[in-house]
Amino acid sequence: MLLGSIEQKLQRLVSVAFSHPKLVLILTLFMFTGLGVGGLRLTQVVSMVDQLDPQMLSTMNTLKTRELFDAQASLGFILRVNDRFKGPQICRARRFISKMERKYPQIESSFSGFDLRQLQTSNNLAYYPQVLEDPCTSPDFFSLDKIKSSPWAHLLTSPSMKDFTVSFNLNLQEQTAYGTFNPALVGALLNDIQTEFGQDVPLVGTLAQEYYTMQGLSDSTWLNALILFIIFICFKFFLGTFRASLLYGLTLVLAATMIYGAMGWVGHALDPLSVCLFLILAISSMEDFIFVSQKRMTTDSLHEIFNELALPCFLTSLTTILAFLTLGFSDLESIRHFGIWAAVGGLIEWGLTFLFLPALMTLFPILSDWTRADRKKGDGLILKTLSWRVPRLVSIISIVFFFTAYVSVNNFKMSQTPTEMFPKDHPFQLSLDFLLKDRGWVASIDFVMTRDVEKNKREQLLELIAKDSIVFKTETWASVVNYVANGKQGLALAMVERELALTDLSQRYRNVAGDERVVVYLRTSNTEKLNTLRKKIEHLCPHNECWVSGEFVGFADFSQSLITTLFESLFLSVMIVASVVVLLALVYQQRPLILGLLFSSLWGPAVLLSLIYFFGISINFVTCVVASCLVGLTGDNAIMFLCHKDNDIHEGIKQRAVGSVQTALMMSLCSLTFIFSYFEPPQMLGILLSLGFIASLIGDVWLLKGFAQKPSNK
């Protein structure tokens, strides 16, 4: 029998750990050191553009736009007053701009109301004086009314004229550990701004968002520490010793170091997906360790413990590995990387549990006594709840959640809004809310027309863009020329256009090849609506002679592909898990229970999918990670119950259900730590994961017990 042959090979492999423990420990140390050094090479992505897939058309168009029009990253701030500005207040901003441009050579230019100029003529002479008077010579009220008619009125101030925006354009071509983002430079400039104008000054620009994203990712490390702390306390509670916590923590640190170190060696950066690898490692390694520890409570022989559990734990790891390997066929680079490393992590976790730990305990026998039945707590309550009997009819009725899950999947709202990634009281989120409320827009993108687009079509495209429901305002080269010309027509207008074409300002809108860029200001950054606009333009310009681009367009396209790919993989993973469960049921002569095993194993994810729909939660990156984690563990308890040495599903539940309950409770508690996340979306992730683990436990244990009852026992 194939399964028996696999079990024998696994048991021989485990026996190597007992017979050659020094060799196993040396090899583990060698891998830990060799791979761990690669962690020094690991980089982290915070820039939205760096997160995008380089092979996607939207990403290529975004990078092409930056190259064609020499676009730079920006960082700005907004000065606000309750009534009207006075000259000294604006003068302070002007002097600050000059000071920053001298201090930071990376600042290529700044943009504010001081840069506005309009044509004036006198005695047959043409000149371009500043629109705003010198604020440093005006001690009284300072008027910003002359900004109102400019193409940048919505960018530089608000209709109330009670705020004033200053923006710096930075050249960040130097590569750092954070990709194209330079945290030291941006942090220093932000500190100068807040020191000069106060901590509550609104900050705007992509660099401000990226800086706070970097802070959030760095801040999330304490959540990993909190997860470890919770696990340590739970192990002491359930297993009776801190020694169990230390052993588990050691395997987790080894696995995480190897994975992230290997990523550093091959040049794969940390991104929002790969950051979740630690959580996946913690969950998968916790499950195996708990089942091994529960067996240790009743068995003194280490050989018997690890030999008996080698096959079922390998099969649970195998289903997880195969589930994540399905992501390796994705067209998206970041998803391929995530799937491959999650699969590698599952393999490393099994090796550490069934090779490293036996070798360690053989060399250091004191570690082999890592559980204390006389000190453990909680088993009484768990055994009491496990004694509850679910009527077979209730288990059958619970199948209704599979129908609601089917309806849910076909009616999901797939969207997310990247400008709402921070909590509502976060400084940057408050700045975005201020922009939307005070000025009517929250983000900007680019619309590019190449020289191949004819004049009539350009006018039609511009009209189409301007009338789109998510567009607040467009900023065009023609509007800039007309403003600077100050109402002049004919030769004067042509002269202004010719002279403006020689300035740096023109690079924002045109290039020498004849390509034109339009800056589009959006009322929302909702990915679903942005994708609708992007597809509309792609239909009108099938040869890519025009396009919309920018960080938010690229993110919307990437997000849609990411969500679709993850869901396709999830359904394939479910089929893999179902196949393994059916195979085991046949091998262990549990044919009548096949449907019950499948329904109970998949019931938790079905409930979660239903809840997501019923509560109107949008499907986005976070909810897909939740589903990935749940499906990665789907079927694990069924496999553990089936692979019992007595080939009796009832005995398997009786002997191993305590470990299932402990695992689910610990996973649920660990998931709730995300409520304290720096970002808004992971807070929902924590709640969904926690509910998902509890629902899966109910299905795996109590509903399965109901299905396992004979019809005559109703």
Summarize the model shown.
With 714 residues, the chain is an alpha+beta fold. The protein has helices at 2-19, 21-36, 48-51, 57-69, 87-103, 153-156, 183-197, 206-219, 221-239, 242-266, 277-298, 302-325, 333-363, 379-386, 392-397, 400-409, 427-439, 455-467, 477-485, 491-500, 527-540, 551-587, 594-614, 621-633, 636-642, 649-672, 681-708; strands at residues 73-80, 107-111, 120-122, 125-127, 163-170, 203-204, 443-449, 471-475, 516-522, 546-549.
Structure commentary:
This protein has 714 residues and is an alpha+beta fold. It is 61% helix and 7% strand. The strands form three sheets. It has a four-stranded antiparallel β-sheet with strand order 2-5-1-6. A four-stranded antiparallel β-sheet has the order 8-9-7-10. A two-stranded antiparallel sheet has the order 3-4. Strand 3 and strand 4 form a beta hairpin. Helix 1 (2-19) packs across helix 2 and helix 10 (242-266) runs antiparallel to helix 11. The longest helix is centred in the last third of the chain and has 37 residues, at 551-587. The mean pLDDT is 87.
